[in-house]
Amino acid sequence: MAFTADNFVRLSGANSNAGVVWTYAEANTLANIRGDNYFDNAVATYGLADGDVIMIIASDGIGFTQMSVSSGAATVGESITSS
Fold first, then answer.
1. DSSP codes, the chain
2. Over the stretch 22-59, which tens digit does the pLDDT of each residue have?
3. CA neighbours closer than 13 Å in the CB half-sphere of residue 65
């Protein structure tokens, strides 16, 4: 499955240099959602930035992922999973 913009919501980070926390929910596995460049559209559309954290609600559990963003490409950095 591909990134679905309607499932991506900003939770915090207004007026702060501390980074942003997002939530993303989808009926897909954590491994698929954390795949390379899955969140590239969120970089251009929503301003997903290097160091932002996404709380992912997937079909096989919940995870927190810190993103690495460079030249418009988003890749998964550190991750914590609870399933």
1. ----GGGEEE-S-TT-SS--EEEEE-SS-HHHHTSTTTTHHHHHHH---TT-EEEEEETTEEEEEEEEEETTEEEEEEEEEE-
2. 999 999 999 999 998 899 999 999 999 999 999 999 99
3. 26
Phi and psi at 42, nearest 5°, equal -70, -25
pTM of the model: 0.88
Q: How is residue 12 written in tokens?
A: 């915090």
Question: Listing from the earlier edge strand, what are the strands of the sheet with 61-70?
Answer: 8-10, 21-25, 53-58, 61-70, 73-82
Angle at 31 between CA 47 and CA 55, to 5 degrees: 45
